[in-house]
Amino acid sequence: MNNVSVDLLLLEGLKVSPASSVPAFVLLLLIYVFIMVSNVGLVLLISTERSLHQPMYLLFCNMSINDAFGATVVIPRLLSDVFLPGSDRYISYVDCVVQAFCAHLHASTSHTVLMIMAFDRYMAICDPLRYAAIMTNKMLVNLSVSAWTVALLLVAVLVGLSVRLSRCRWIIFNPFCDNASLFKLSCESVLVNNIYGLGYTVVLLGSSLGSVTLTYLRIAMVCLSSRNKVLNGRALQTCATHLAVYIIMFVSGAVIIVLHRFPDLSDHRKLASIMLHVVPPAMNAVIYGLQIKTVREKISILFSRK
Fold first, then answer.
1. Rounded to 10 degrees, what is the CA torsion of 252, 253, 257, 262?
2. Partners of 121 in the beta sheet?
3. Is residue 19 classed as helix, strand or coil in its secondary structure?
4. Do the bridges between strand 171-172 and strand 8-11 make them parallel or antiparallel, or are there none, so unpaired?
5. How far apart are the C-alpha atoms of 10 and 247, rounded to whole Å?
6. If you count DSSP H runs as helices and E runs as strands, how many of each does the chain have, helices first?
7. Per-residue pLDDT for 71 more than 90?
8. Is the dihedral of CA 224, 225, 230, 231 positive or negative?
9. Residues 101-129 pLDDT 10s
10. Strand order from edge to edge, sheet including 8-11
11. Furthest-apart CA pair in the chain: how many Å?
């Protein structure tokens, strides 16, 4: 295994005691089923319910698809390894690269999708007379494609810089593969990786936080200057939903970045990295789903039948 050409890596996976393996497996499985059912269900409902064919909900389909994708990237692998001893959790280098790419794509797309959703809310509240003319089906497609393409390009460069490095190690000290895990396998200089990684983080988080903050400051000014309490209430309701989703996602990612600065808290960072692919995907569907009247009605019908 010391041969650098070997294509098998040892993955740390989820660190649980043998006694905790079954509860951990059941809990993760239930969470994964909930994420998939809720997010896929929302996409199907929005697709089939004509009353929900509005820009806000159609753009949210991007978030649900991305959340289901992000959970699938990480959770099934954790489930398959949870009963294996730490010394038997192998993953091929190619699979590790694919998982790292997909994990970062999910995280990056979460930011870019929330940015285009913020733009939609800005147009709806700050320029309602031109909203229908601007937010056409073509614009929705362009915004969605742009959100995924920008994230795809940023992550492709990020992971590509790590793949170019030679390998002298074969252990991944993380529950799943990510970009840092890949370049830590090398004994070469990773200065370029660190510089691009820092720039990638600053650009993504900075543009995301900046655009959302400016958008909601502008929306707040419009609501404060308006005397229509009914419209202001609706605006604040939809904006509060979007803002709650953004805060959950931003805090989940920021915690990982902060914990990277404290090596003694590596176990906490590893747990936080898993939570990034579990908490937002589970919460987003609940927060947005409960806001949609049609969803609430269908849930009420389901429980009334029981």
1. 20
2. none
3. helix
4. parallel
5. 34
6. 11, 3
7. yes
8. negative
9. 999 999 999 999 999 988 998 888 888 88
10. 90-92, 8-11, 171-172
11. 72
Distances, alpha carbon 170 to alpha carbons 11, 83, 157, in Å: 9, 21, 22
Specify the pairing of strand 90-92 against strand 8-11.
Answer: antiparallel
The one-letter amino acid code at 291 reads Q
Count CB atoms within 10 A of the CB of residue 87.
7
- Token digits of residue 86: 């730490």
Distance (Å, rounded) from C-alpha 52 to C-alpha 235?
Answer: 17
Residue 258 structure tokens:
């902060």
Name residue, tokens 């951990």: 24
Query: What length does the chain have?
Result: 306
- Residue 109 corresponds to which amino acid? T
Dig out the tokens for 229 from the structure: 């309490």
d(CA 59, CA 169): 42
Q: What is the DSSP letter of 57?
A: H
* 4-63 residue pLDDT tens: 445 889 988 777 878 888 998 999 999 999 999 999 988 998 888 888 888 888 888 999
Q: What is the pTM of this model?
A: 0.88
Q: Could you write out the DSSP letters of every residue in 79-95?
A: HHHTTS-GGG-EEEHHH
